[in-house]
Amino acid sequence: MRCMPSVYIHVPFCVQKCDYCAFYSHSLLHSPKDLIAMYLEGLEIEMEKRKKDAPQGVSSLFIGGGTPTSLKDEDLERLMEMIDRHFRLNPKAENTVEGNPGTITAAKLSCLRRYGINRFSLGVQAFDDKLLKVVGRMHTAHEAREAIRRLRAAGLENINLDLMFGLPAQDMAIWQATIEEALSYSPEHLSLYGLMLEEGTPLYSRYKEGLIDETDETDKMVKTGDKRNSKTDFKSRCGPAKDNQRERLPDDDLQAEMHEWAVERLKRAGYSHYETSNFARPGYECRHNLGYWRGDDYIGLGPGGVTCLNRVRWKNIEEVRTYQSRLQKGQEPVDEAGQEALTLRECMAERVILGLRLEEGVNLTSFRNDFGVDLRDIYGDVLERYKNKNVFVFKGEYLCLNSKYSFVANSVLQEFI
Ligand code: SF4
Fold first, then answer.
1. How many domains, in total, are found in the chain?
2. Rounded CA gap, 216 and 394, in Å?
3. Ligand 1 site, residue 123, Cβ cutoff 6 A
4. What is the pLDDT of residues 333-392, one digit of tens each?
5. How far is the CA of 21 from the centre of ligand 1 (A)?
6. 150 and 219 both lie in a single domain
7. 3-state class of 122 per DSSP?
8. 191 with 67, same domain?
């Protein structure tokens, strides 16, 4: 029997776009005034259509974006009321909202708490104004500190801080100071992401124009995120910006070292490295994301939302007006190109690839129960090929990835497809 689905609500608005961001979101500073009203109208119709898919309630809720806390008080209240009316929020479930410093007020937190929000994910990225500015973040380090204080004052006992490494002009000392400051607030959860240069973003244009220093390695980092793990002297490969116009990107070796240092430091501080980019104090692993990685069903609402139910997956249209007008006409807000019935083989490959991101690995019993076959019978050839290098490890009922291969995992994992 399938368990209750989780629900993700996409809020595609931010105060202003960050320079590195390729996600779908509108800058509120440059959007027509009626766009949020249209979004909420469409979302309400979509919730009405989809509530039948969660008759027993939802296993977890995640309101992400975008920046959900960039909504005005009355819009946020309307959003929460709509979710509660259609999906019966369970205060004992994990209910998360994402937000950014500078947009978090006591009034908004009070509203979220009233509707059962018990986890908050805060986009800190860095505690350094210069770095924040270089990547076009809208907030300051002081606002991040103040946001953390407000979250705790509002009674939130489960907080995630998002931090980024590999930023222009960031060196190891700055990164270490960021981690130490984050630890001083005792967050229950930390997510660490390496910067990716995505085509079409202002940061990518600056890189192409030569305003960001090119190193031999940077080209490999663009779009691929491919990282290696060799040891070289990082001090020679990164330094502060030479002037206001020109910045230097840490190369992929330094990024790997930053990640490696943080893994060790956070382990010493009592956090488990339970997923490639995620760390948690015991019992605070993000249940919503664990559901994705373990292959549970999910409903994604709002423009760009992705749903996967009973092995059928679809993606909503991203553009707010088209999304809303389709729903108003009684049509599905679905992007036809993003609709797929997954074959059994695709589902199995996805389960293995996502599961291997987790420290716990892929649960062999669940695999057998869900697919009616043993993972070793299906992927015996891949496991055999990497046997000598110990890339895969069996631990009881789990198949895991040897942690020393986590930075080269992508190429290996492709073999399961
Ligand atoms: S706040 Fe997040 S979603 Fe919004 S522009 Fe910045 S990175 Fe993108």
1. 2
2. 38
3. yes
4. 998 877 888 999 999 999 999 999 999 999 999 999 999 999 999 999 999 988 888 899
5. 6
6. yes
7. strand
8. yes
